[in-house]
């Protein structure tokens, strides 16, 4: 039986309405908000540029790890060890910055 590694993953935040949606191949992260009210459902990109592409974009390459700050996660490239601080936000202050 072939083991299949997912190309996308949902990561829970401490906010009951918010998940982070990770493209495990490219390192793209989106904030995903669900709601019973249609106008409150949304998906907001946190980073727009892929961190891996082409033959390097393999499922499972990237993973998100929570921190003790509910707004911040660490994105880890499990292939080469690079890492980024990922901040989600409900007021337009989301972003991703490399940790060097």
For the record, give the distance between the C-alpha atoms at the N and C termini, rounded to a whole number: 40 Å
Portion of residues in helices? under 10%
What is the 3D form? globular
Outline the biggest β-sheet: 4 strands, antiparallel
Chain-wise SSE layout:
Blueprint: E1 8-12, E2 18-23, E3 28-33, E4 42-45, E5 62-66, E6 72-77, E7 83-87, E8 95-99
Antiparallel strand pairs: 1-2, 2-3, 3-4, 5-6, 6-7, 7-8
Keywords:
single chain; 100 residues; mainly beta
Task: Describe the structure in your own words.
The chain has 100 residues and is mainly beta. 0% of the residues lie in helices and 42% in strands. The protein has no helices and eight strands. It has strands at residues 8-12, 18-23, 28-33, 42-45, 62-66, 72-77, 83-87, 95-99. The strands form two sheets. Strands 1-2-3-4 form a four-stranded antiparallel sheet, with no helix packed on it. 20% of the residues are buried.
Task: Give me a quick take on this structure.
It is built from no helices and 8 strands. By secondary structure, it is mainly β.
